[in-house]
Every structure is written in C-alpha cells, then in structure tokens.
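Reading a protein record of the kind used here takes only a little practice. Think of the row as the fold of the chain written in a discrete alphabet. A record is reproduced here so that you can trace the correspondence yourselves:
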Amino acid sequence: MARSKEFDERAALDAAMQVFWEKGYEATSLSDLTARMGIQRTSLYATFGDKQSLFLACLAKYSEATMAYYQAKLQKETTIREAIRSCFADIIAAAYDAKPNRGCFSINTMVELAPHDPEFARITRHNQTQLQVLFQQAIERGMETGELAEKLDAAAVSRSLVVYMAGLLVTLKSKPEREFVEDSLSTLLQLLK
C-alpha cells in the first residue's frame, strides 16, 4: 500500500519559493530548501524533482499569481491611466515598505539566470510578453473609450511599460531617493496622452 504524503505540497512549494526569492537560485542549497519546507530530500525529489524543477515550479506559481494580480488591477480602476499608474505606484510603495526589499521573483530570475540559461531566458521573456499583452489590452480599451488618444501605438507603449517595469524593479533594489523614482513614473505616464 502506498504511503500518503505527510506534508502539504502547496505550503512546501510556497516555502521553497520564499527561500529562492530571498537567496536566489545559485545560493540556495538543498539543505536550505528541505529545512524551510519541512521535508526530507527524498520527499523533495519524489514530489518536485530536482532543484531546477522545484525552482521552475516556484517561478510558474509566482508568474501565474503576478499575471492574475495585474490583470485584475488593470480592470479595477475607473480609468486606464489610473490603473497603469497604480500598478507602478504599488511597486514603488512595496519597495520602500518591504524590509528587506526582495524585488520581483521573475525579474530576479531574469537577472541571475537568463543570461546563461536559455530555459530561464525563454520563461522570463514569456512573462514579459504576457505582461505586455495585459498592458496593450488595457491601452486599447482606453483608446476605444476615448480616454486615450487614438494615435497611440498601443503595442509600442505597452512594450515601453514592460521595459520600464523591469528597470524600475532592478533600480529599486538599491533604494534610490523615492522622489527620483516617482518623478520617473510621472514622466513615463506622459506616454499615455
């Protein structure tokens, strides 16, 4: 008779994601993972596979939650301009409120692993593309309602927003003056006129 698992897979995956998020992929050891997850190595391998497979599962979970968050955020506000401003304002607020500021798990992965691992480069590019599509759909809605100018190139503006977001998340790791970052956001929002 097969033994039932004695741990909650979702909770273990969340715990693993926290370790990877805090330390990065390379600096995280299997001992770090099993200690935080509260499981033995054999259970880790049997349930999640090797370290890279576990990391990929964590990244997929994070990406799914992040995309759902931004999709809801871009539909929640009364105006598209405010929805987009709010997405970035939340990132800025979180960076200055968080102790420590761990940044974005996906962007951290892009910086640490994508330059030398084609699989992580592909995944992080896919995440950026998904976000770009969400921004583009929001901008197109704003153009259809007349809130945003019809002359806008929704694809180009949405790509600019994604590039700005990635740069913002990396920049915030060094805790620049908040006014510096908020001024850059004001300038960025000029694209939406």
Observations:
- The first helix runs from residue 9 to 23.
- Residues 81 and 192 are 7 Å apart (CA to CA).
